[in-house]
Amino acid sequence: MKLNLFNYTCKINFIPFIVFIAVLAVLLRLGFWQLARADIKRAYLATQQTQSLMPPVALTELLALGADLRYRQVQLVGRYDVAHQFLVDNQILEGKVGAFVLTPFILAGNNTLVLVNRGWVAMSKGAQQLPDIDFKPASGELVLNGMLNDFPGVGLVLAGADEPSDSWPSVVQIINNAKIASKLNQPIFDFQVQLLADQPNGYTRNWQINRRMPPEKHIAYAVQWFALAITLILLILWISCKKNKDD
Predict the structure, then answer these.
(1) Which residues contact 26 (CB under 8 A, 6 or more apart)?
(2) DSSP 204
(3) What is the average pLDDT score of the chain?
(4) Mean pLDDT confidence for 136-148
(5) For residues 200 and 203, what is the distance between their CA atoms, to the nearest angstrom?
(6) 91 phi and psi, to 5 degrees?
(7) Residues 6+ positions from 246 with CB-CB distance below 8 Å
(8) How far, in Å, CA of 207 to CA of 51, rounded?
(9) pLDDT score for 199
(10) Residue 25 confidence (pLDDT)
């Protein structure tokens, strides 16, 4: 295949040309796919932000909605089970190692427990000395406000990370619903409620919406794919095109 461009003659064989078109199409498709992902992520984060700003609603009402309830504010009525608390270990905050304190909450008129995340506490290396998380809540039924979220996780999952320790408070790295329910001898919901910062009986609470891969990262990936496409075009032109010599 031969083509004259300005004062250059470009010549490329048929098979390399087909390969060039195919690779270029893949690179462009990947770039536009990342741009689409960025738009989807922006819309998702905007929805999550809107949900987090809604006023608290009773848990039974939220569960009846059956939609994505993550980051929705919820109101719980019942009482804490302070004798059976969990420390979710290996949680990093501002460079310090600590744990989230998850306390079972017994709902009024419901047999299923809710694990309330009362915040982050510092822990000694190796969890040799556990922090004192005992407290005495007010008598009678409590009304507290929190935000629905997935259970906290860790970056590297090791074998046995979901096995709670025998004593109380029980130390665990990952919440396994079945194992936690077995230890409590009672079913639990498959989400946590993060205690809002203005609620009593809590620790350090800096709840944030999870931005595991923000839109800006998708844009950066798109730029990389488009840059590779431009580089491929320039490379094929440099290899295939020669300047015409004057007579």
Answers:
(1) none
(2) B
(3) 84
(4) 87
(5) 9
(6) -105, 120
(7) none
(8) 14
(9) 93
(10) 94
Q: Tell me: the pLDDT tens digits for 193-247?
A: 999 999 999 999 988 776 667 888 899 999 999 999 999 988 887 777 765 555 4
- Give the tens place of pLDDT for each residue, 143-201: 999 999 988 876 566 667 788 888 899 999 888 989 999 999 999 999 999 999 999 99
In the chain, how long is the greatest CA-to-CA distance? 102
- Bridge partners, residue 145, by sequence: 75
Q: Determine the Cα–Cα distance for residues 37 and 45; give it in Å rounded to an integer.
A: 12
* Ordered alpha helix ranges (H), the chain: 14-52, 59-65, 177-184, 215-240
Helices 14-52/215-240 angle, 10° precision: 170
State how far the Cα of 191 lies from the Cα of 189, in Å rounded to an integer.
6
- How many residues appear in the chain? 247
Q: Whose CA is closest to 69, among 194, 196, 156, 175? A: 194
189 in Cβ contact with 114 (< 8 Å): yes
Single-letter amino acid, residue 179:
K
Residue 104 has a pLDDT of: 95
- CA 193, CA 126: separation in Å to the nearest integer? 27
Rounded to whole angstroms, the Cα distance separating 5 from 7 reads 6
Amino acid in position 33: W
Pairing mode, strands 170-172 and 86-93 = parallel
Instruction: Report how far residue 173's alpha carbon sits from residue 152's, in angstroms, rounded to the nearest whole number.
Output: 9
Give the residue carrying structure tokens 């501002």: 94
Check residue 90 and give its pLDDT: 84
What whole-number distance in Å separates Cα of residue 64 and Cα of residue 225? 44
